[in-house]
Write a structure and sequence with these properties.
Blueprint: H1 9-17, H2 23-41, E1 44-47, H3 49-64, E2 76-80, H4 107-114, E3 118-123, H5 157-164, E4 170-175, H6 181-187, E5 190-193, E6 213-218, H7 221-231, H8 249-256, E7 265-269, H9 279-294, E8 298-302, H10 310-325, H11 346-357, H12 360-373, H13 379-399, E9 405-409, H14 425-429, H15 436-441, E10 445-453, E11 456-463, H16 469-482
Parallel strand pairs: 2-3, 2-4, 7-8, 7-9
Antiparallel strand pairs: 1-3, 4-6, 5-6, 5-10, 9-11, 10-11
Helix pairs in contact: 2-3, 7-8, 8-16, 10-12, 10-13
Length: 491
């Protein structure tokens, strides 16, 4: 059954629905693959083999009883370890939550289970989603299956690596500054950030509450759209959830697969056309844009002058929100507790716990954020960054008056060697140079493979207006018809 691991999720779902293969067989094939290769890839922090097989058997039993099941019922999925899973470890890649088993499921996980998807386990990530390479996980890095000496992107490198290593056909990530799209780009997979508020944050351990967005990861655009449709929609448990219908993302992906983009105007962002990106990346992106034009799209150069300020604005807003959100990890209520020997004060226990439990990048961002929010500096830093965010939103609004979608590189460079940037935080932060604007704006964006540079994958980013997620899927699916995803070397 090893051939099952190479099939797209949509095809697996069809085979299961037709009774040609069982969910248990599909699940076992992927668990066998994890057992065979994950020691080298380290995509997973926890594999729930027993729970996955039980869920698969339940789907098979319900199908045998004639129950109406969802379009992805019986298909396995990997979940980034930032989403709570009842009774299953949720660590956020941090020692401070090592061994924590939440008493509840996140809304995303609840919807996955209700739709009959089979959760294989929890994937590795940069600690609390703070990183661009999955090297900041407290439990060791994830390795890119294209080249095991290179990073798989971050913070959700485990989810992307699980796809390209054929350990899972689908995965869930979260995107705060590019953490779904950037791993998608450097692993040659599809990573989509939905509209902020289009997917629920309930049960997503918060990093930056005004930016965090759960979303789908897949090997094809249609698979990503199908998963998007499962997890999206209004959630009363999330105060930022949008009370509106889910955009017709699956229909849009199928429409795009016809290869016709007649009448679609694509805006090429002038500010992201050169500086800061590798020549090979720019060449692959240009070829991707040319392919869209051949499919009937009309290219329009647009200027978004404030996009160049997105990176510094983000690295004030996100750390400020993280310094507030991570205050809950105090060694008192749950997780790690250090120094509680009866002789120390509560403040000392908190300090020792955080010193031992948080890694260097998390500490760095907490300190930046605390400083930016401090008396006398709030207006100069956090307040100014929010003003820049408004200007970036205006750039998007003006651009979408001229075009239907915007296109740009997803990342400035291909996957870099592990360890090559950890000593220089600024160089690491540049990995999200092109993805951050969409997070500050709140609109949807997807990374889709557009070729190779130096033998490694390059991603083309497609950005759309808020709640127009279907537009990006249509364009992405059309590109996929002429620029198929690159096939990684075997492990």
């Amino acid at each position: 059954m090893s051939e099952l691991i190479h099939k797209p999720a949509a095809e697996l779902a069809a085979l299961i629905a037709a009774g040609e293969v069982s969910s248990v067989e599909v699940t076992r094939a992927h668990l066998d693959r994890i057992a065979a290769v994950d020691q080298r890839v380290h995509a997973f922090l926890h594999v729930d083999a027993e729970g996955a097989l039980a869920a698969a058997a339940d789907v098979d039993a319900r199908r045998a009883d004639g129950a109406a099941l969802g379009p992805l019922a019986g298909v396995p999925v990997a979940v980034k370890d930032v989403l709570t899973t009842k009774g299953v470890p949720t660590t956020c890649g941090s020692k401070i939550l090592e061994g924590w088993r939440p008493p509840y499921d996140s809304t995303i996980v609840t919807r996955l289970r209700a739709a009959g998807l089979v959760i294989l386990g929890k994937t590795n990530m940069d600690e609390f989603a703070m990183g661009s390479s999955t090297e900041y996980s407290a439990f060791g890095p994830t390795f890119n299956p294209w080249d095991l000496t290179r990073i798989p992107g971050g913070s959700g490198g485990g989810s992307a690596a699980s796809l390209v290593a054929y350990e899972a056909p689908l995965a869930i990530g979260s995107d705060t500054g590019g953490s779904i799209r950037q791993p998608g780009a450097v692993t040659g997979t599809v990573g989509a950030k939905p509209t902020y508020g289009g997917t629920s944050r309930y049960g997503l351990v918060a990093f930056s509450s005004s930016l965090d967005t759960p979303g789908p990861c897949a090997r094809t655009v249609l698979d990503a759209a199908l998963l998007h449709a499962v997890i999206a929609g209004h959630d009363p448990a999330d105060s930022t959830s949008i009370p509106a219908p889910v955009p017709p993302v699956v229909a849009a992906a199928r429409q795009g697969a016809t290869g016709d983009l007649s009448g679609v105007r694509i805006g090429v962002v002038r500010e992201f056309g050169g500086e800061g990106a590798e020549p090979g990346v720019l060449a692959a992106v240009r070829e991707g844009i040319e392919a869209l034009v051949k499919l009937g799209a009309e290219p329009v150069e647009v200027s978004c002058p404030h996009f160049t300020y997105a990176l510094p604005a983000y690295y004030l807003i996100a750390p400020s929100e993280c310094s507030s959100n991570l205050a809950r990890f105090d060694g008192v209520r749950y997780g790690l507790r250090v120094g509680d020997d009866g002789t120390r004060s509560l403040e000392e226990v908190m300090s020792l716990t955080r010193e031992a439990g948080f890694g260097p990048e998390v500490k760095r961002r907490i300190m930046i954020g605390t400083y930016a929010l401090s008396a006398g500096y709030y207006d100069a830093y956090y307040g100014q960054a929010q003003k820049v965010r408004t200007l970036i939103t205006r750039d998007f609004t003006a651009a979408f008056e001229q075009v239907d979608v915007l296109v740009a590189p997803t990342t400035p460079f291909v996957a870099f060697p592990i360890g090559s940037r950890t000593s220089d935080p600024y160089q690491m932060y540049l990995a999200d140079l092109f993805t951050i604007p969409s997070n500050l704006y709140g609109g949807p964006a997807v990374s889709v493979p557009c070729g190779l540079s130096e033998g490694l994958p390059v991603g083309l980013q497609i950005m759309a207006p808020t709640m127009a997620d279907d537009r990006m899927y249509r364009v992405a699916a059309a590109l996929e018809t002429v620029v198929p995803a690159p096939v990684p070397p075997g492990l």
